[in-house]
Design brief:
Layout (H helix, E strand, L loop, with lengths): L2 H7 L1 H53 L4 H11 L3 H28 L1 H8 L7 H26 L3 H55 L14 H33 L1 H35 L3 H28 L1 H8 L11 H23 L3 H26 L1 H22 L1 H5 L2
């Protein structure tokens, strides 16, 4: 069988290959932007920018009340049922409007306090927080529209949308960093969601309108109870994980130095780039697929198929990255970041185990296993927080990546135990 026919006959490979086009373009743009950031801002600037980047997922999660995965699940289930979709969209818009208003008020009126916390009182970026507060509704609505497109399995639209968003974001970031350094970088992060929203609305309003009857949207929440598990799961996963990263980066700056903080931020940046590829696979394939499975045998067969398809390719990519790590640093960052070479081993090993864990843990979301999801996530976050805080004091950034590896080995075991009925039952 030829590679082309193999891809066409395997939906996961088909989505992966389509998604990889978008990811490849995103990575090229991101690499160019990161190079500019590394050269002009150095490790210290990269560290401070990393803190602000961690704030964006928190805002998205809180402003939507974490319903992203729930919207994907229920749109996928009821995309042929107009009545149920209308109830779903009404609930979604109420959640988004309420969350956006709450986050706007906190960001706008708490800008001074947030600035002091995030930047340890070293910089005055209050104006950026106020701009970000205005961008909050755009962040939330964009996330909701993306979830709808995902749930409808509009793979091509999703990829095109992401490519256009990355082009706008990369151009703006590169331009403002070049002329305004760290001020420009933070300003770019704050206003990019607004521009991305208008791109999304202009390009895909017709697709959305064919499913969403905007005139009949009501301020009711008939799906409020169904969304509640996703709200809790998202807030635990997104809010707490971003908060832990910000705390650890601040600890590196205050207890070690900005160089360590910058190196660790650059390492997590590289990790995030290849996990961007899997994000599309999880939202476009894994979550809807797991939600549609009804027997343990089906789940076991699907997991085995995904493992056979994804893990060998992922492992090969990680090995290649490790061998070429010095070239990667010089290409993506600068000589100032060569100290991060020692971080690759534990980061990459941890990322491989993380991938294996994430694949099966999406069963929690698919089957609304709220208790199991929260317990395993809390175990993971508490392990990382405690181990990283301990090793950081003596080993700096290298201690954090070592904690990252231990965390995901134990997390994988916890997830397997929680899913033992699905993984090993008949």
């Amino acid at each position: 069988m030829s590679l082309k026919s193999a891809i066409q006959n395997n939906l996961l490979l088909k989505i992966s290959s389509l998604n990889s086009v978008g990811v490849a373009i995103r990575m090229l743009l991101s690499f160019a932007t990161q190079k500019i950031i590394a050269v002009f801002l150095g490790p210290a600037g990269v560290a401070h920018l990393g803190n602000f980047r961690n704030l964006i997922p928190i805002i998205q999660s809180l402003s939507t009340f974490g319903i992203f995965e729930g919207v994907i699940k229920y749109v996928a289930e009821f995309k042929e049922d107009e009545k149920e979709l209308q109830k779903l969209f009404s609930t979604s818009f109420v959640f988004v409007l309420s969350g956006s208003l709450l986050v706007f008020l906190v960001l706008f009126f708490g800008a001074f306090s947030l600035n002091n916390w995030l930047f340890s009182g070293q910089y005055d970026f209050v104006f950026v927080f106020k701009i970000l507060s205005v961008a909050t509704p755009f962040i939330a609505v964009s996330a909701l529209f993306n979830a709808i497109i995902n749930g409808l399995s509009k793979y091509k639209q999703f990829v095109v949308l992401n490519i256009l968003s990355y082009v706008v974001s990369a151009f703006l970031m590169g331009l403002l960093v070049y002329y305004k350094n760290l001020n420009g970088a933070l300003f770019a992060l704050a206003i990019t969601p607004i521009l991305q929203f208008f791109f999304l609305f202009y390009l895909y309003f017709r697709v959305l309108r064919s499913y969403v009857n905007f005139k009949n949207i009501s301020f009711q929440i008939p799906y409020g109870q169904q969304f509640l598990p996703f709200v809790v799961m998202s807030l635990v996963a997104t809010f707490l994980s971003s908060f832990v990263e910000i705390h650890l980066r601040r600890s590196l700056v205050l207890e070690i130095d900005e160089m360590n903080a910058g190196n660790w931020t650059a390492m997590t940046y590289i990790s995030n780039q290849y996990f961007a590829f899997t994000a599309g696979i999880f939202t476009l394939y894994v979550l809807p697929k797991f939600a549609s499975l009804h027997t343990n045998r089906q789940f076991q067969k699907e997991v085995l198929g995904i493992y056979k398809t994804i893990l060998p390719l992922f492992a090969f990519g990680l090995l290649l990255l490790f061998v070429c790590r010095e070239w990667v640093i010089l290409i993506l960052q600068s000589e100032a970041f060569l100290g991060m070479k020692t971080l690759f081993k534990w980061q990459l090993l941890g990322d491989f185990v993380k991938m294996a864990s994430l694949i099966i843990s999406h069963q929690f979301l698919a089957k609304k296993m709220v208790k199991e999801f929260i317990i395993t996530e809390l175990i993971s976050l508490l392990l990382f927080f405690g181990l990283a805080s301990f090793f950081l004091k003596t080993h700096g950034a290298e201690g954090i990546v070592f904690a990252h590896f231990i965390r995901y080995v134990l997390y994988f075991l916890a997830v397997v135990f929680a899913l033992r009925k699905f993984l090993f039952g008949k």
